[in-house]
Amino acid sequence: MAIVKFTFEDKNIPAQEVKGMVGDNILDLAEDNGMHINSNCGMVCACSTCHVYIESGEEHLTEISDKEEDFIDRALDPRIESRLSCQCKIEEDNEDTVIEVLVPDQSRIIGHEH
């Protein structure tokens, strides 16, 4: 299983570490473990509300698509390590797989509560 470490720009939200398997996406892992990431489009890569930063472990995730890159350009404060959490699926989950995710401050994004 892969270890996914979530940290948050909003320091009122505690960091959390969860386990994931091949095929799991970052958005679902967060939501399934009580962490909220805004998501407006239903995970079809049609908005940028689920924007996150992959601080390490990018090589264990699916490759970024052209469509995802286009929507990241619309996100608040995009960086080279930006991804849409709904599009980041785990591709490798051996015992030393670690993925570190930084969730931007969600208060600046209008998004659906789940």
Automatic annotation (TrEMBL):
The protein's required cofactors: [2Fe-2S] cluster
Highest taxon above the source species: Bacteria
Name of one Pfam family that matches: Fer2
GO molecular function: 2 iron, 2 sulfur cluster binding; electron transfer activity; metal ion binding
Keyword presence, Iron-sulfur: yes
Keywords: 2Fe-2S, Iron, Iron-sulfur, Metal-binding
GO biological process assignments: P450-containing electron transport chain
Domain 2Fe-2S ferredoxin-type: 2-105
Gene3D superfamilies hit by this protein: 3.10.20.30
SUPFAM superfamilies: 2Fe-2S ferredoxin-like
Family named by the database record: Belongs to the adrenodoxin/putidaredoxin family.
PANTHER family listed in its UniProt record: FERREDOXIN-2, MITOCHONDRIAL (PTHR23426:SF65), FERREDOXIN/ADRENODOXIN (PTHR23426)
Protein name from the UniProt record: 2Fe-2S iron-sulfur cluster-binding protein
Phylogenetic placement of the source organism: Bacteria, Pseudomonadati, Bacteroidota, Saprospiria, Saprospirales
